[in-house]
């Protein structure tokens, strides 16, 4: 209760504590505009809680996905989220519910077309 040893950590498959890192570059199947990407992200976040897990954890994951790395780490740690991938792709809450995030909510594709 309140001691620093009880905080959740970002843990990899090897059991070692890891920090959240910038996601690897990815490419969409077709070039995509900034507006299309924003729409895809909004649709994902709107529907994600319906696939299970707690809304509070989804909200924390969204905040972490949209934040700078140091703030994202703080958000994840504070929410008690267990991250198995340093890119936030696969996470669990303290009850064991699994949360999977697609690449498009974590970073921009290499073939993004900027809207004017």
From TrEMBL:
Q: Which residues form a coiled coil?
A: none
Q: One Pfam annotation, family name?
A: UBD
Q: What is this protein called?
A: DC-UbP/UBTD2 N-terminal domain-containing protein
- Superkingdom assignment: Eukaryota
Alphabetical list of InterPro entries matching this protein: DC-UbP/UBTD2_N, DC-UbP/UBTD2_N_sf, UBTD1/2
Query: What PANTHER family does the record point to?
Result: UBIQUITIN DOMAIN CONTAINING 1 PROTEIN-RELATED
Region of interest called Disordered, as start-end residue ranges on this chain? 1-33
Q: Which part of the chain is the DC-UbP/UBTD2 N-terminal domain? A: 17-115
């Amino acid at each position: 209760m309140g001691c620093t040893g009880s905080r959740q950590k970002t843990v990899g498959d090897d059991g070692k504590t890891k920090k959240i890192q910038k996601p690897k570059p990815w490419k969409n199947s077709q070039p995509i505009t900034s507006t299309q990407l924003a729409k895809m992200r909004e649709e994902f976040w709107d529907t994600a809680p319906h696939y299970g897990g707690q809304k509070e954890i989804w909200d924390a994951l969204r905040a972490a996905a949209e934040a700078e790395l140091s703030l994202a780490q703080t958000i994840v740690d504070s929410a008690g989220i267990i991250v198995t991938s340093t890119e936030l792709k696969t996470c669990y809450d303290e009850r064991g519910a699994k949360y999977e995030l697609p690449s498009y909510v974590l970073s921009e594709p290499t073939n993004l077309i900027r809207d004017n």
